[in-house]
Design goal:
The chain is built from eleven helices and two strands, in the order αααααααααααββ. The chain has about 230 residues and is an all-alpha fold. The chain folds into two domains: about 100 residues, Helix-hairpin-Helix base-excision DNA repair enzymes (C-terminal) (Endonuclease Iii, domain 2, Orthogonal Bundle); about 100 residues, Hypothetical protein, domain 2 (Endonuclease III, domain 1), CATH 1.10.340. GO terms for molecular function: 4 iron, 4 sulfur cluster binding; class I DNA-(apurinic or apyrimidinic site) endonuclease activity; DNA binding; G/T mismatch-specific thymine-DNA glycosylase activity; metal ion binding.
């Protein structure tokens, strides 16, 4: 079992520094060319891989141009355009409804505040944080996706389970200048090494400070279950 730093703040700083060295080019993997495309891509990415979303949006963004196009298309047709995406019927409804609101209430522009974004259909705090950070250059929180949730628990940064509570705790210990990058670093490491089912602790740059490291610890702190 690894030995965490004395405080969670020291642990978070060490984790961030090591992962930044390991993944120097870490950034968002969704493809988009404007704020609306970003918003739609993030809505589609819920419980779906970014790779699959990028494949789907390649033709989607060629067909639809602006919020009015999405607002006016029949929902069944939009759903059919998304049929390789998980929960495509629900997501088609979210996108159509959100674009109706953008067209009618926001002069066709994706809003730039947390409250206005989370008022849109299908947009929670995680999605809003991504749009603010990468669409508006506004960083007021940490995006907590499944990778961030898993790694932050495994690495002893939090014992919380709900994304909102995890974000609140991470904000207190992750340096503010790294709030945006912390998510991308966790995603890259979660995909490459610290996977959900079988993390490769033997090839992990964080193993010596990870309280979930498999060689000595029988419990995965992310799930609370035995390895």
């Amino acid at each position: 079992m690894g030995t965490p730093r004395e405080t969670r703040q020291e642990q978070a700083e060490d984790i961030t520094e090591r992962l930044e060295t390991e993944y120097p080019d870490s950034t968002i993997s969704l493809r988009y060319s404007n704020r609306l495309e970003l918003l739609i891509a993030v809505i589609l990415s819920a419980q779906c891989t970014d790779e699959r979303v990028n494949q789907e949006t390649k033709h989607l963004f060629e067909k639809y141009d602006g919020p009015k196009d999405y607002a006016e298309v029949p929902q069944d047709e939009l759903a059919e355009d998304l049929n390789s995406i998980t929960y495509y019927n629900n997501k088609a409804g979210y996108i159509k409804s959100a674009c109706e609101a953008i067209a009618e209430k926001h002069d066709g522009e994706v809003p730039d505040t947390m409250d206005e974004l989370t008022d849109l259909s299908g947009v929670g705090r995680k999605t809003a944080n991504v749009v603010l950070q990468h669409g508006h250059d506004v960083v007021e929180g940490i995006v907590v996706d499944t990778h961030v949730q898993r790694l932050s628990r495994r690495l002893g940064l939090t014992e919380e389970k709900r994304p909102e509570r995890i974000e609140e705790e991470l904000i207190e210990i992750v340096p503010e200048s790294y709030w945006q990058q912390f998510t991308h670093l966790c995603i890259d490491h979660g995909r490459a090494v610290c996977t959900a089912r079988n993390p490769d602790c033997s090839d992990c740059v964080l193993a010596d400070i990870c309280p979930s490291e498999k060689s000595d610890n029988e419990i995965d702190l992310a799930s609370g279950e035995p390895w």
